[in-house]
Amino acid sequence: TTRIERHHxxxxxxxxxxxxxxxxxxxxxxxxxxxxxxxxxxxxAHTVMAEGGxxxxxxxxxSKDNWMVHFRDTMRGGKFxxxxxxxxxxxxxxxxxxxxxxxxxxxxxxxxxxxxxxxNFGGHEYPRLAHVGDRTGLELIRTLQQKIVxxxxxxxxxxxxYDSKIKVFAETTITELLLDGDAVAGAFGxxxxxxxxxxxxxxxxxxxxxxxxxxxxxxxxxxxxTGDGHALALRAGATLINMEFxxxxxxxxxxxxSVKGILVTESVRGDGGVLRNSDGxxxxxxxxxxxxRKQYAETEEEADRWYTDPDNNRRPPELLPRDEVxxxxxxxxxxxxxxxxxxxxxxxxxxxxxxxxIKRLPSMHHQFKELADVDITKEPMEVGPTCHYVMGGVEVDxxxxxxxxxxxxxxxxxxxxxxxxxxxxxxxxxxxxxxxxGKRAGEHASSYVDALAKRPKVATADxxxxxxxxxxxxxxxxxxxxxxxxxxxxxxxxxxxxxIRRAGELTDALKRLQxxxxxVANVGATGGRRYNxxxxxxxxxxxxxxxxxxxAKAALEREESRGGHTxxxxxxxxxxxxxxxxVCSLEKSGDVHLEHKPVPTMRGELISxxxxxxxxxxxxDDELTSFDALAE
Length: 632
Ligand code: FAD
What we know:
By secondary structure, the protein is α/β, with parallel strands linked by helices. The strands form six sheets. It has a five-stranded parallel β-sheet, covered by helices on one side. Strands 1-10-9-8 form a four-stranded mixed β-sheet, sandwiched between helices. It has a four-stranded antiparallel β-sheet with strand order 17-12-21-22. Bound molecules: flavin-adenine dinucleotide.
């Protein structure tokens, strides 16, 4: 028999990015024995890579900002498909979560009068992103880790063990959740380094596993983002919503090929960088959609004046929400006005002095010098769209972060959860999302545990089944090669379920995904259990497959274009489709089941934050009539 290490906790948090760490802190503060699991090294998560900042309406740089404006921007950015309650909680609670970080030891950049400085970003009406140069995520993770260490020191003083109340399992991958009936009972996984297995028995699990980008070849995401949390949730009986909405960030590196997809932060545009095509033209002025026409400058002169006088000028179109900018770049390249490497130019060199660039964008300066031998103080960058963020995710209760579906004791926060960002996320709204809903998930997971009459039990048969699944690729040494399978999957998703989608291609994608699924069922890994990346990928593929199937199915079903979902055959937004969430669940057979569910209706006082003319661009006539009544 294979040895399995056993542990007992109250709350197991899967993922050690911002959402996971903030949830773990809250659970520990609520007195719960808490485990934090991280697939990579502790501290290495997407959160650490976040550059631009965290959006919070503190009103430090422009006092007109407040939660209502932030809420409005978030709903607009998501094209009104957002779960309004999540957007409301997020806008209201983000400032408190940022200030709280400073009490944990973070230090954000300052305004002249000593307040937390805030920078401009796409879709945000006022400067709103609290930042630390272009290394905000690093400060966030550093601070949360420091808080955890300080809690562990308190625990040591009290119990003689640092790990007595909060323990970190780094380089450990969870492959399965275990249930007792419908209640979460534990999590099963392996240590990456030695391939040993572990079972964490716990009545509550918080999923904070981040995104799914590795199903695409050109992506800003790193290796661990294979949709594990999404798949774990589905297999446990939870539901995913709106998986068709993927954010293709407009500016990834396009050259050299080895670094294609690596992110170029939106701060470059927020701080004054402009996009030009191969004719040298600032093309974004041609791509302002009607719904945004009133808020964006029509001339370069007005756009440039905005940086110093935002009250009397409109914003540059380079700062439209990401979906708009990504589609515009895609069109320019397709129409033959791209750069030699197939992107467009992003220029700061002619826009500000070299010292300013180096001070405001140190990581970008370094990144281009090191990876592409380009000095961004002297020449433009070449950029193009890259798969960046998944708006869809685990369907959750907005207040408690508890997963919907049949399962209890499962919570989700951060990128793995869905709803908050609607069809398109605004930059900076993820770091704040992690803090707001990470805290809520930790708090509610703890009160769930407190309310349990008895602890769910892990069944031996379920542990054995999880073990069999984990060992299967090693028992098929001559099975399909996992790397080939991942490349084939990436080709299907990139070519047929990419930025611009069509019914025929999506149907083809679904067919190919079925074929791939059969091959993945036969995936093999050579070698043994000691540090074996081929085996790890073989296990991740199962997750990537089911998540990709959700994305392709929902993309075929949604016959409109909205945010991170563009259908060439249905190019307009449809007010009828705005009322629909597409919800995925898993059938016993392993097939994905798709359902329509109504988008919750905004409360009256929130509706009245918008002008009727704006609402009329998004809502059906029926809705407008009933909203008129609500708003009164
Ligand atoms: P992550 O930080 O992604 O962490 C996920 C954790 O889960 C990791 O610890 C991982 O190891 C673990 N994990 C995954 N699967 C498993 C498993 N099976 N078992 C155990 N552990 C697992 N957003 C902003 O708001 N502002 C920005 O400026 C910004 N810049 C960005 C720049 C880059 C380059 C990227 C890639 C993203 C950026 N984003 C930004 C988006 C933002 O960083 C992410 O959406 C966010 O950090 C996600 O946080 P999270 O806590 O949900 O998950």
